[in-house]
Design goal:
This protein has 240 residues and is of the alpha+beta class. The chain has 2 domains: 30 residues, no CATH class; 194 residues, no CATH class. 34% of the residues lie in helices and 23% in strands. It is built from 6 helices and 11 strands. The longest helix has 23 residues. The chain is globular. The N and C termini lie far apart (52 Å). 33% of the residues are buried. Bound molecules: zinc ion (ZN). Zinc ion binds next to β7. The site of zinc ion (ZN) has 4 residues, from β7.
Length: 240
């Protein structure tokens, strides 16, 4: 038996949608921030379908970015804007001293938007992968650098007329390894190619970075990345 025609169903759906939108618009309906696309990004909140949208919006707006970062548990202090050469410099940047639950091998200059992606990655990908694959958290993230006024390295060295690297605006960080609480190290160079727990952890950390950064390059991309993950924001989106 067909209770409704197709047009009838469509009409009912559109009516319900209009009523829902009106209720939302006039504030008659409270929806939790997690499920409200207009709500600010909450770094602590378990990611869902709206997280990517909220993260992109926060990265695009310095005020939103710093507001989200303030709640993230990251250890940092803002640094003043400065230009350091053509296509190089710091805008809405900070000195990251540590994550929420990881130390950094040394402080890193990062744009707010890159630090926000780091916060999401640490909390929702890196430490969960460490718990699952290694049975405990990562204590320290070892990196090779973040801010550097240079062009993209093509393998023949940086070219004079090449495009600026995301490192030139502190929108990227190169992560080379991890130290566990028992002080054992896991390095991209040594452990990426294996099939043990350390290798599985690295693969999860890499895949997780692709969820929260806009560009990720690792050992499978080319020789230049044999010893680190390049994690960046502000690009077109790649995960290699
Ligand atoms: Zn890099």
């Amino acid at each position: 038996m067909r209770a409704f025609s197709r047009n009838g169903l469509l009409l009912a759906f559109l009516t319900a949608l209009a009523a829902l939108l009106a209720a939302l618009h006039f504030g008659a309906l409270e929806i939790p921030d997690r499920f409200d696309p207009r709500a600010a990004l909450d770094v602590a909140s378990e990611p869902n379908l709206l997280t990517g949208l909220k993260l992109r919006r926060a990265r695009a707006d310095p005020a939103r970015c710093f507001a989200a970062l303030e709640q993230s548990g990251l250890q940092y202090e803002p640094v003043a804007d400065r230009s350091t050469g053509q296509g190089c410099g710091l805008t809405n940047a900070l000195r990251l001293r540590g994550g929420r639950s990881v130390a950094l091998s040394s402080p890193a200059l990062l744009s707010c938007r890159a630090a926000l992606s780091f916060a999401m990655w640490e909390r929702h990908a890196l430490q969960p992968a460490a718990s699952q694959r290694l049975g405990g958290p990562i204590a320290t993230v070892e990196h090779l650098g973040s801010y550097a006024c240079r062009n993209i390295n093509t393998g023949e060295g940086s070219t004079r007329d090449g495009r600026r690297s995301r490192h030139a605006t502190a929108d990227a960080i190169d992560v080379a390894g991890y130290v566990r609480e028992d002080r054992t190290r896991i390095t991209v160079l040594r452990d990426w190619g294996g099939d043990d727990a350390e290798a599985l952890f690295l693969r999860d950390a890499h895949a997780g970075a692709c969820r929260f950064f806009e560009g990720v390059l690792g050992p499978d991309y080319n020789e230049l990345h044999a010893d680190h993950f390049h994690l960046e924001v502000g690009g077109w989106g790649f995960c290699r």
